[in-house]
UniProtKB/TrEMBL annotation:
A GO BP annotation: trehalose biosynthetic process
Involved pathway(s): Glycan biosynthesis; trehalose biosynthesis
Name by which UniProt lists this protein: Malto-oligosyltrehalose trehalohydrolase
SMART domains, per database record: Aamy
Organism: Corynebacterium spheniscorum
Location in the cell: Cytoplasm
PANTHER family cross-referenced by the UniProt entry: 1,4-ALPHA-GLUCAN-BRANCHING ENZYME, MALTO-OLIGOSYLTREHALOSE TREHALOHYDROLASE
Taxonomic path: Bacteria, Bacillati, Actinomycetota, Actinomycetes, Mycobacteriales
Residues marked Transition state stabilizer (site): D389
Taxonomic superkingdom: Bacteria
Family membership noted in the UniProt record: Belongs to the glycosyl hydrolase 13 family.
Amino acid sequence: MDTQQPPLISVWAPYAHDLRLITRGAGGDNTYPMTRGAGDWWRSEVPASPGLRYGFQIQGEDGQWSKTLPDPRSLAQPDGPHGLSQIPADKHVWRDQDWTGRALAGQILYELHVGTFSEAGTFDGVAQKLSYLRDIGVTSIQLMPINPFGGKRNWGYDGVGWHAVHAAYGGPAGLKRLVDAAHAAGMGVIVDVVYNHFGPDGNYVGMFGPYTAGGSTGWGEVVNMCGPQSDEVRAYILDAVRMWFEDYHIDGLRLDAVHAFVDTGAYSIMEEIELIAEEVGAATGVQRIVIAESDLNDPRLISAREAGGYGLAGQWVDDIHHAIHTLVSGEHHAYYADFGSLGVLEKTLREGFLFSGNYSTYRGRRHGRRINRELTPAYRLVTYTTTHDQTGNRAKGDRPSQNLSAEKQVLKAALVLCSPYTPMLFMGEEFGAKTPFPFFCSHGDEGLNEATREGRFREFRHSGWSQDEVPDPACAQTFESAKLVWDFEPEQVEILRAYRHLIRLRKQLNLTRPRMSEFQVDIGQQDPAAKRGWVAYGFEDIRLVANLSGEKQELPYGGELIYSFTPEKVQVAAEGTVLGPWSFALLRP
């Protein structure tokens, strides 16, 4: 019999002049005094018993008491970010004892939004699609942020309560069921976490203490990672990281926009997060991975700590996406301005980064640092044909599959899936989804909704889009339009078959090869600035040749044809290959 007593309820609140605990029971609310202790931690005499609903009231220097506030370290918010916190009654019995985890090498990642991936919009709805994803060849699902947010509809990047799980998705219990089901299906679960700002709706941490440090990331105030009293803020983040790995058996974290961290200490919080991942992995025998989204083009994130890096498993690489997208779609607005030539594609495919200390027209300055191709395993770079950002941060939220032919969609997929880098799919791209993925929200405060509308309209005006093209992010229909439709048209069936075949070939041909220095890339124009032509890349024993133009191309690379989506447009001989418009061929030289 477990006789361990639950801990007493406590909270870090250096800003409080006085503080009291409010609990809710069948007979109404009860009030309990709290005592300030070491390090500005306030403690009660009330145990954190499973099922308990509670909150705090803070007295300021003016003697006024606040309304009842949720716990910044709340583990559950059944009524949303404004409601009382709850101690979960954890009855889940884990069944994943045989799960050993997955390293990043060899993975096929699949990014999804829980609320729009299935009709149910829940963790259980995702679980019902796991067999479909496994059949495609997906090895890990990557959930967009699942911390509590205001309202019922949100991308998740406006989250608060970094230790809690959004109730409408299924809360803590639903997430644990999904993780167990994924592990039973042989798949990992990665969670997208946002530690660069707090969402605006239900954000009460500033009443408790200095969780932020002034200044703006563009989405909210800078998180206090290195200012006065930042030790507790860092512990707030690091304890959440440990919680995901230990309590929820999560296999990996994707760190959102780490370039927005203001973290000037000798030890980066990214390095500390990676150390927790390694510690938990060593203790459990289940490997944990950390992937960063970064606009810095800084190889330090994925370099070994022995070489002065942070040792993260991987990072997103937008440059490869941009290079492919601009050539296939012809778009060159906003941050695509630096892309759109064969020479740019050649460099990004070969080196991972376009910007490695060279000048960026879009930024108006030099940017980035070169990756060491001899020492950096290729799989540490996560690549994709689109993501939630690359789709949702367009005026209409239109997907590439809404604008491109099936041939162009599969061509882009082949360029990513036949590279040595780690591929990631965005939900629905594998069957050419016709539904958009616009930005959506449903803040409880209409003023926040209006500010979000104006912010989106202003952002897109600067990029040349008309306000009339931008869906209202607070409108329920905007959210409903983003839900995937699972009844496939004949063309979508063909696209899905191609994705499945390319992923299978990736594994059979062992295209996840660590040595970037052995990856060869060639382009088909003497003028690197040419915007049309061909690209050929691969290794000594396998090569992809692709026509990035609307005209027939002759390439000096031949061999045995392994696969083409449009074999009727491809002629392969020993001495060379002829490719029809927007076609490709996977060859064995």
